[in-house]
């Protein structure tokens, strides 16, 4: 979409990443998935198995699946928020988290572009819920798929009319997280992964909310200017 200039009117930032920057992201992601994520998945299997993980029939009911996935989202968001705030301390940001922030204008694939130590550190938030509940393989696959879709959407750089954040007030989405990437690490805020209430409770979204209020006021002013007839 970036290369073709498609749907530019919904792009949050005007800047477009170069082809070289995109290719760098893709190549490092392949390396991280093979050398970090794959060993992590293999190594965590005994823990999942011990906690009751199964791939056998019967399949779990949709009530169980939905409850578990909702619980995973809430747990992940809570753990991620605090882990992310820790990564924004001076030393950890400089030596670890700054890798993820190399892209001030994020696009979908940058969602998993990070230092290997960060992948392990924040990856704990993603696997914690399944690790303590031992879900069915179907639930685990569905959870991981939804989590990846969510983080890719948050980094996509586009605020579409159909974005979930427009219909679910506590959902962050692309506009919420894009703000986090645009600012200096000491002032960014918006640390949550999926929802917005943790940032609201702890006051780490004040800059974002102030900016939104200013934009809304400007939009209202422009609307009034258009409607009021000009006189000589």
Automatic annotation (TrEMBL):
Against Pfam families, the record matches this protein to: FA_hydroxylase (PF04116)
> Where is the chain membrane-spanning?
29-48, 60-82, 119-144
Q: Does the keyword Membrane apply?
A: yes
**Which molecular function term from Gene Ontology is one that the record holds?**
oxidoreductase activity
Q: What are the subcellular locations of this protein?
A: Membrane
| Keywords assigned | Membrane, Transmembrane, Transmembrane helix
CC annotations in GO: membrane
Fetch the InterPro entries from UniProt: Fatty_acid_hydroxylase, Sterol_Desaturase_Related
Q: Tell me one GO biological process term.
A: lipid biosynthetic process
Query: Coiled coil: which residue ranges?
Result: none
Q: Does Transmembrane helix count among this protein's keywords?
A: yes
Q: What is its main location?
A: membrane
Q: Which residues form the Fatty acid hydroxylase domain?
A: 70-204
The family classification in the record reads: Belongs to the sterol desaturase family.
**What name does the UniProt record give this protein?**
Fatty acid hydroxylase domain-containing protein
């Amino acid at each position: 979409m970036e290369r073709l200039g498609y749907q530019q009117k919904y792009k949050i930032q005007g800047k477009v990443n170069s082809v070289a920057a995109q290719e760098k992201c893709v190549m490092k992601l392949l390396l991280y998935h093979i050398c970090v994520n794959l060993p992590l998945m293999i190594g965590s299997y005994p823990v999942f198995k011990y906690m009751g993980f199964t791939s056998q029939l019967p399949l779990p009911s949709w009530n169980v699946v939905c409850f578990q996935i909702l619980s995973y989202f809430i747990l992940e968001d809570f753990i991620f928020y605090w882990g992310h705030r820790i990564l924004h301390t001076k030393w950890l940001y400089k030596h670890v988290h700054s890798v993820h922030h190399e892209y001030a204008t994020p696009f979908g694939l940058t969602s998993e572009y990070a230092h290997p130590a960060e992948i392990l550190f924040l990856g704990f938030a993603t696997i914690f819920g399944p690790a303590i509940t031992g879900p069915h393989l179907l639930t685990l696959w569905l959870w991981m798929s939804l989590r990846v879709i969510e983080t890719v959407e948050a980094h996509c750089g586009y605020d579409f009319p159909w974005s979930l954040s427009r219909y679910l007030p506590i959902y962050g989405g692309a506009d919420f997280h894009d703000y986090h990437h645009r600012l200096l690490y000491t002032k960014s805020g918006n640390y949550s992964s999926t929802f917005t209430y943790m940032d609201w409770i702890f006051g780490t979204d004040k800059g974002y909310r102030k900016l939104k209020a200013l934009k809304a006021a400007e939009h209202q002013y422009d609307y009034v200017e258009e409607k009021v007839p000009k006189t000589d």
